[in-house]
Design a protein that fits this description.
3-stranded antiparallel sheet; elongated; Jelly Rolls; 37% strand; 131 residues; alpha+beta
Length: 131
């Protein structure tokens, strides 16, 4: 297993981690198998979406903020209640096919770390299973 260290700069930020994931695969000489990408945080998540148009990230953030506003009046009042809800709406992990040393993604797809309670130093765990 390997840990990616992610440093978010904003309270809410969508960070493309595709290059770091591909670097992990290449560095270790992995060729064919399954890669699990996991976020061990309750106020962050992982998603797959378009990586060509930066407005997609803005649209996702705006949509989530509209549906889950920070000042909603949540029962638990730690100040990051909205971040817990937003993270619950995202995935905490994904499994990816690795073939010929490449993580298989669609033409416009990227793998993103979703920060909802930054800025923070975060971890993403990577685990490869050969196959």
């Amino acid at each position: 297993m390997e840990t990616l260290n992610i440093s978010s700069k904003q309270r809410e930020q969508i960070i493309d981690i595709t290059p770091q994931i591909q670097q992990y695969i290449s560095k270790n000489g992995y060729s064919s198998g399954i890669l699990t990408v996991y976020s061990p945080h309750t106020t962050a998540g992982i998603t797959v979406n378009e990586n060509a148009d930066p407005d997609v990230k803005k649209d996702i953030t705006n949509f989530l903020n509209q549906k889950v506003p920070q000042n909603f009046g949540f029962a638990h009042i730690e100040g990051n209640s909205d971040a817990h809800i937003k993270a619950s709406l995202m995935n905490f992990s994904y499994n990816f096919i690795v073939e010929n040393g490449q993580v298989l993604l669609g033409t416009w797809q990227g793998i993103f770390f979703m920060e909802f309670d930054g800025p923070r130093n975060r971890n993403v765990w990577l685990k490869y299973i050969s196959g």
